[in-house]
Amino acid sequence: MMEALLADNLLAVSTIVPAVIGLGGLGIVFGIVLAVASERLAVKVDARVKQVLDILPGINCGACGQPGCEGYADNVVAGKAAPTLCAPGGPEVAQKIAEVLGLAVEAGERLVAFCHCKGGKDSEWKYDYDGIPTCGAAALIAGGPIACNYGCIGFYDCIAACKYDAFLIAPNGMPVVNAEKCVACKACVNACPRGLFELVPISRKVHILCSNLDKGKAVKDVCQVGCIGCTRCVKKCDNGQISMKDGLAVIDYSKGEVNIEAVESCPVGVIHHYAYQDPITWQPPVKEALKGAAEPVQSA
Amino acid sequence: MGIGEAFTILISTIFVYNFVLSRFLGLCPYMGVSKDTSSAIGMGMAVIFVMTLASAVTWPVYRFLLAPSTSNLWYRLFGGSPADYDLTRVLRTISFILVIAALVQFVEMFIRKASPGLYRSLGIYLALITTNCAVLGVAVLNIDMFFQNAQPVPGSYLKSILQGFTAGVGFTLAMVLMSSIRERLEIADVPEPLRGIPIALIVASIMSMAFLGFAGLI
């Protein structure tokens, strides 16, 4: 009885032995091949990469140009990137990275995003847009629904992209960056199909709120507050901070603050001066503006 | 193996019996890595490589270690009857998995050395090729299709390798099509409950039905 059961249920010895040897043999062969391969294909990881990675904020925001902190740590240690590129970390992190790598660091100023448009939704509309409510989708149809081909479309892709809740909406519907919360991760810079955002040094208070590259009349036709390219501000500048680029005044933030005469010279008031605001919240909170305070952004 | 046969294998594995869309194998990486086209292509290349190698390695393993034929290694060594050494039943799946796992380990080391960017973008899914049923599927299918009574049909080794390669190509095709659609879905106005994986599964089913149009071609 017992023997019959064994015969029925157990595999023959002639099956077990080859099975064990065969599988074991395969395992050994592959093991040896992999051991050799791991030796030959070993990737030497610099211990400093781990140290730098520990210093970085680890939010993988992409402001440094790499998809994540790991890529940036690799590049910094390899000498392919400067230690100052981590915007959310700021000078503090740059200093620590420089210490790990034994580099001298030129701490740059903290940057914040800024939207170079004032008119935006106040501009004329070319057609009624009834599609997907994102700027990216709207910009694909006949250059976008608003008459100004350079201005804010107003579906707030920038606000959707911002992970840090750093946006406010001004009474005129324009997205406004709250400098206190902005970590300069470039998410809004990349999200805006019109490329309206730029990272600017936080201490600079004069900005040009227009991105329209058209000639003066064409700008006037679509927006009352756009830069008409009259070059008055350029002439009034004391240090060449403002220059004309394709018919649009642009500020070189590295040349110092723009003098008040240049700001006041603008006939359309597209150059804004935030001198009287707290330097941190250099764009006023919406709540205050809604309370009936004067023009939220102080123009000349 | 003539050109005609090769062409038949090519068309049938890529289109008619696409591993993902017709046989429903390898759905995990199909859903997981098809969010953007560049990683879909990377994953596809890795799968093509593993499938081709797996076909090339599992064929001799089956032929010389497992199948009860006169070329069986154990029969050659110990004599008796080939039927005594029929390991197909007990060892086929486990030995194929061993082969595939070892190959994936090798591919992982190789990609890490050769292309760190691709290595990072594939992430966990690279290791998951090991348990990707499409790879095991192609190995088993090669045996089922190109062996009769434990004897290989003429040209079966080349056919197996070709089938492994084309299965990978079919997988890549499905991945790239899917990733292109999903990149567009990102900006589309999809109803809230359907966003992400649900709409992707619906798209996958529609694509699968579209590929059904190839049925009967061969």
Which percent bin holds the helix content of chain B? over 70%
The percentage helix of chain A is 25-40%
Radius of gyration of chain B: 19 Å
The shape of chain A, in one word, is: elongated
As a percent range, the share of strand residues of chain A is 5-15%
Strand residues, percent of chain B: under 5%
Major β-sheet profile of chain B: 2 strands, antiparallel
Overall geometric form of chain B: globular
Q: Summed up, what is this model?
A:
The complex is a heterodimer of chains A (300) and B (218). With 300 residues, chain A is of the alpha+beta class.
Attribute tags:
heterodimer, A: 300 residues, alpha+beta, two-stranded antiparallel ribbon, 12 helices, 8 strands, 34% helix, disordered C terminus, B: 218 residues, mainly alpha, two-stranded antiparallel sheet, 10 helices, globular
Folded structure, characterized:
- The complex is a heterodimer of chains A (300) and B (218).
- Chain A has 300 residues and is α+β, with helices and mostly antiparallel strands.
- Chain A has twelve helices and eight strands.
- In chain A, the strands form four sheets. In chain A, strands 1-4 form a two-stranded antiparallel sheet. Chain A has a two-stranded antiparallel sheet with strand order 2-3. Chain A has a two-stranded antiparallel sheet with strand order 5-8.
- The longest helix of chain A is centred in the first third of the chain and has 28 residues.
- Chain A is elongated, with a radius of gyration of 30 Å.
- By secondary structure, chain B is an all-alpha fold.
- Helices cover 71% and strands 2% of the residues of chain B.
- Chain B is built from ten helices and two strands.
- In chain B, strands 1-2 form a two-stranded antiparallel sheet.
- Chain B is globular and about 70 Å long.
- Classes of the chains: A alpha+beta (300), B mainly alpha (218).
- Chains A and B meet through helix 2 and helix 4 of A and helix 3, helix 4, helix 5 and helix 6 of B.
